[in-house]
UniProtKB/TrEMBL annotation:
<feature type="transmembrane region" description="Helical">
    <location>
        <begin position="140"/>
        <end position="172"/>
    </location>
</feature>
<feature type="transmembrane region" description="Helical">
    <location>
        <begin position="320"/>
        <end position="338"/>
    </location>
</feature>
<feature type="transmembrane region" description="Helical">
    <location>
        <begin position="77"/>
        <end position="98"/>
    </location>
</feature>
<dbReference type="GO" id="GO:0005886">
    <property type="term" value="C:plasma membrane"/>
</dbReference>
<feature type="transmembrane region" description="Helical">
    <location>
        <begin position="350"/>
        <end position="379"/>
    </location>
</feature>
<keyword id="KW-1133">Transmembrane helix</keyword>
<dbReference type="Pfam" id="PF02417">
    <property type="entry name" value="Chromate_transp"/>
</dbReference>
<feature type="transmembrane region" description="Helical">
    <location>
        <begin position="284"/>
        <end position="308"/>
    </location>
</feature>
<dbReference type="InterPro" id="IPR003370">
    <property type="entry name" value="Chromate_transpt"/>
</dbReference>
<feature type="transmembrane region" description="Helical">
    <location>
        <begin position="224"/>
        <end position="242"/>
    </location>
</feature>
<comment type="similarity">
    <text>Belongs to the chromate ion transporter (CHR) (TC 2.A.51) family.</text>
</comment>
<protein>
    <submittedName>
        <fullName>Chromate transporter</fullName>
    </submittedName>
</protein>
<feature type="transmembrane region" description="Helical">
    <location>
        <begin position="6"/>
        <end position="29"/>
    </location>
</feature>
<dbReference type="GO" id="GO:0015109">
    <property type="term" value="F:chromate transmembrane transporter activity"/>
</dbReference>
<keyword id="KW-0472">Membrane</keyword>
<keyword id="KW-1003">Cell membrane</keyword>
<dbReference type="InterPro" id="IPR014047">
    <property type="entry name" value="Chr_Tranpt_l_chain"/>
</dbReference>
């Protein structure tokens, strides 16, 4: 019964949590800490700090952690399933509709492509303010963006993130104060090591299998598991990682960006964009497969890191590593904003006008993302229908 309670609480959040990961954390605090009192403020703060430290979808990882604290491994799975299911089902259904009726050239679909421009521009804007607050990190981000544009390859992106992290270790070590609080968990360090071992084993195994087999399912598993393992900075960074691998080999730019725009209109985690992509490329089974693959690393990382979090928080080199990586992430996202998003979406004055208005509404008027998505779809239908 406890697992059902965890699932229903998470399902409520999955149906109502609009606004992205920062907003999700606010909803989680109200529901899990203030209303249900499942954990206290200190534990919640520590859990949020841990998940922001890890690659992957922060809000989903916090939900998994809370579910684990409340109901063990099954509780963590129940919390993830409840929070993820609504948006995953919507995007799977959306993919079916646009594929069956060939709606990619409709006006409202063009509007979804344009709102994707505004949303990624907003992500770059907000992330740059937090993650590149000085000239040194701005320079790292700019260099990464330039090299990414000149040498478009997912392997180059990973190499650049590694170099950014090493630069951070040398030049960006923070001044850390005393950390007094700890997470109240019973997960053993042995269990954490096993979880980390599974994470790295699969991260190396899937590319190897992909190289020796022509299976579409192995290729999909490799792409989405790697994306879920290496994304720092939030769900928006999934875009450049997946785009380099899936477009145009598996789907068109129009299909890719339309789904990305639609993902902004639903509550829950942005990583359920994988549900849309998987459905377009492999039917409903592909949607389920891709969704599980992109979230699977989050379970391994959260369960692996929890027992070691106290020592990780106080390691200046680890903190410096991620200062550099985060600057590199801004550069990769900046490059993705130009190519493919801008170059494939902004082709006329009307296109630029709609995208600019969407950006202003998001950044300065603070309109909810789902409302701006709906407005952009309507604008596209009115002004861009052919």
């Amino acid at each position: 019964m406890r697992v059902i309670t965890i699932f229903m609480a998470a399902l409520k959040l999955g149906l109502t949590s609009f606004g992205g990961p920062i907003a999700h954390l606010g909803y989680f605090y109200d529901e899990y800490v203030k209303r249900r009192k499942w954990i206290d403020d200190k534990t919640y703060g520590d859990l949020v700090a841990l998940c922001q430290f890890l690659p992957g979808p922060t809000s989903s990882q916090v939900g998994i952690g809370i579910g684990f604290i409340r109901g063990g491994m099954i509780g963590g799975i129940g919390a993830w399933l409840g929070f993820t299911l609504p948006s995953a089902l919507f995007l799977l259904t959306f993919a079916y509709i646009v594929e069956v009726f060939h709606l990619y050239e409709s006006g409202w679909m063009k509007g979804l492509k344009l709102v994707a421009v505004a949303i990624v521009a907003q992500a770059v804007w907000e992330m740059a303010k937090k993650l590149t607050p000085d000239r040194f990190r701005i320079t790292i981000a700019t260099a990464v963006a330039v090299i990414t544009l000149l040498v478009p390859s997912p392997f180059v992106q990973l190499f650049l993130l590694l170099i950014s992290g090493l630069i951070g270790v040398v030049y960006l070590q923070p001044k850390l104060g005393h950390v007094s609080s700890t997470l109240s968990l019973t997960l053993s360090k042995k269990g954490g090591i096993i979880s980390f071992a599974c994470f790295f084993l699969l991260l190396g195994l899937f590319p190897l299998l992909h190289s020796v087999t022509e299976s579409k399912w192995i290729a999909m598993l490799d792409s989405f598991y790697r994306a879920g393992s290496l994304v720092f900075g939030g769900g928006h960074v999934v875009l450049p990682l997946l785009e380099k691998e899936l477009v145009p080999a598996w789907m068109s730019h129009e299909q890719f960006l339309a789904g990305y725009g639609a993902a902004q209109a639903v509550p829950g985690p942005l990583f359920t964009f994988a549900s849309y992509v998987g459905t377009v490329t492999g039917g409903w089974l592909g949607g389920v497969f891709a969704t599980i693959a992109i979230f699977l690393p989050s379970f391994f990382l959260v369960f692996g890191a929890l027992p070691f979090w106290q020592s990780l928080r106080q390691n200046r080199r680890i903190q410096a590593l991620f200062n550099g990586v985060n600057a590199g992430v801004v550069g990769i996202l900046l490059a993705a904003l130009y190519n493919p998003i801008w170059t494939t979406s902004i082709v006329s004055t009307w296109h630029f006008t709609i995208a600019l208005i969407c950006f202003i509404l998001l950044v300065y008027w603070k309109w909810p993302a789902w409302f701006v998505v709906v407005a952009a779809a309507l604008a596209g239908e009115v002004f861009l229908s052919s």
